[in-house]
Amino acid sequence: MADHTGKRASKRARRRIDTSSIKTTTLLSFVVFALFLVMVLWGLSNFFLNSFYERARSQEVIRTAETLETQFRQNNFGFGSLALQTASSNNIYIRIDVTDEALIFDGTREAEGSDTFEEDINRIKAKLEASATESISETRRDPSGMGSRLVYASYISASSTDNVLCIIAPLYPDPVTVRILRDMLIYISFIVLVVSLLLAFALSVRLSAPIEKLTRSATELSKGSHDVYFDGAGFTETKELARALNKASYEMERTDFYQREIIANVSHDLKTPLTMIRSYAEKIIDITGDNPEKRNADLNVIISETEHLNRLVTDMLSVSNLQSNNVVLNMETFDLVEAAESVYESFLALATSEGFEIHFHPCKPAYIVGDRTRMTQVMTNFVSNAVKYSGDNKYIDIRLSKSSKKVTFHCIDHGMGIPSDEIGHVWDKYYRTSANHERGIEGTGLGLAIVKGILNLHGAKYGVESEEGKGSDFWFEMETVKKPAAEDTEKKDG
Ligand code: ADP
Questions:
Q1: Environment class of 428 (CB within 10 Å of its CB; exposed 0-12, middle 13-18, buried 19+)
Q2: So what CATH class is 236-323?
Q3: Tens digits of per-residue pLDDT, 62-77?
Q4: Distance 474 CA to ligand 1 centre (A)
Q5: Chain segment 8-65, per-residue pLDDT in tens
Q6: Is the CB of 429 under 6 A from ligand 1?
Q7: Domain 331-488 sits in which CATH superfamily?
Q8: Which residues contact 481 (CB under 8 A, 6 or more apart)?
Q9: Does the CB atom of residue 234 touch ligand 1 within 6 A?
C-alpha cells in the first residue's frame, strides 16, 4: 500500500516538473545566471585578487615616494611627521639616508625594524648607484611566505646623491581584510542567489499567468462554448494573441451559425420540390391518371420541380468546383459591351411580359480577356437578381463605363435594397437576406457565391452599393486589352 502511494507521488512530481514550461525555463535561466555570477566573483577573488592587489599597491607606493621626494625638496621642516604618518597609514617602511645618519619611519604592522630590511636596502642602494636612473624598484618574495614585497630606492634631493630614500612595502593584502572580503563574498553570493530565485519565480508566474488563462479559455472554446472571452492582460504580445483568439472565436461562432443556416436552407430547398413531386405523382395515381389533360398539367408541375432541383444541384456543384479551384476557364479576348448587350436582349421578352423597364447604357467597345460564357453568367445573375428583388419599382439600368484600361459593368435596380449589416454576406454561399426570407422570394443563395468565384478567377474587382428600400448597384471592373488583330481584319473584309 505504502509502496503504491510512494509511486503515485513520484509520478505526480515527475508530471509537475515540466522542463519546457515557461516557469521552469525562467527559473533555470535565472539560477544558471546567478550561479555563473557567483562563480565569476569567486574566481576573480581567488585567482586575480593577489596579482591585482600587487599591481595597484606598487603603483600607490611609487606615487607616495614621489610625494615624499617633492616634500623633502621643498621644505625639510615637518617632513619627519609627514613621513611617519605616510609610513603608518600605508603600512610601509621608509628610510632616508642623509649625509651621516639614517632616518627610519617604520609603519609596517609587524614593525620588523631596520635590521630585517637592512639586506634589501643595501642591495637596492647598490643597484641604484650602478644604474644611471634617479630611482629604482624591485619585487622580492617576502620571507613570511605570504606574498611579495616592493623594494624602492631614489635620490631624494635634487643636488646630492648622498641623500637616498628607501621604501619597503609588503605587496600582499592584510589577512584580516582578506577574511572580511571572503565573508562579504559569501553574503553577496547568498543574496544574489536568493534574489534571483525570487525574481525568477515572480517573473515566471507573471509570464505564465496570462498564457494559462488563455489556455483555459481555449479549452472552453474547444468544448463548444462560444461565449468565452480571451483575456491576455499583462503583456502586449498576450493581449495581441487574445485579440486574435477573440476574433477567431467570433468567426467560428459566425461560421457555426451559417453552417446551421445552410443546412436548414438546403434541406428546405431540396425538400419543397421533392414534396411537390411526390404529392403530384400521388395525385396522378389517385385522381388525374385517367384524365389526360389534368394528368399532363400535373406532369408539367413534376417536370418543372425536377428542373428546379436540377438547377439547385448544378449550382451547388458550381460553387463547390469554384471554391476548390476545380474549374478550367476558356479564356478568349472579347468585347464585354457586346456580351452585356446580349444579356440585356435575353431579358427583353421578360421586360415586356412582366412590365419591367430595362435600360441599356453601353460605352465604347471594351475588350477583355476572360471566359465569355462565365462572364455572361455573371451579368445574367446580376440582372436576374435585379428583376427578382425589384419589388414594385420595375426600372433597371444596365450601365457600362470605360476609363483608362478599365471597364466597369453596373446593374442598378430601385427595389428593396440590402440592409447595411447584411451587405457583407450576400456573396457568401447560401446566404439570403432576412427580408428575402420574409417575402418568400425563391432562390438558392448560391448565385452571388458563383459570381464571386468567377470574378475572383478573372482577377476582377467587384462590389455592391445598396440602401435598404432604395435599391442596389451590383458592379464589377476588369482590365481592358487591345482589340484583337483578327477582328480588325474581319471587320475590314466585311
Ligand atoms: P438567391 O438565389 O437567393 O437570389 P444570390 O446569391 O443571387 O441568391 O443572392 C444572395 C442574396 O442577396 C439574395 O437572397 C438576396 O437576399 C440578396 N440580393 C441579391 N441581389 C439583390 C438585389 N439586387 N437587391 C436586393 N437583394 C439582393
A1: middle
A2: mainly alpha
A3: 999 998 888 888 866 7
A4: 10
A5: 555 555 556 677 788 888 888 888 988 898 899 888 888 888 888 888 999 999 999 9
A6: no
A7: Histidine kinase-like ATPase, C-terminal domain (3.30.565.10)
A8: 333, 367, 368, 369
A9: no
